User: Fold this.
Amino acid sequence: MNRRKKIKDIYDKRMKQANLKVNPKKAKPKYISKAERAKVEAQAAEENSLSDTTLADSADAITTEEPT
Assistant:
């Protein structure tokens, strides 16, 4: 009985470890380096500035049109 129990315990322990390795808990987000975060922020700022300038240009075009 003890031999079977020991083998079963070893088997259960290995299966539990294998299942944890296959399906890890995703509690923490993936690490993003400081340089990568700076690059993403720069791209976001560039997109915002581009959209702001296009909005400003279109607003200027609307206000400069002369009504007939």
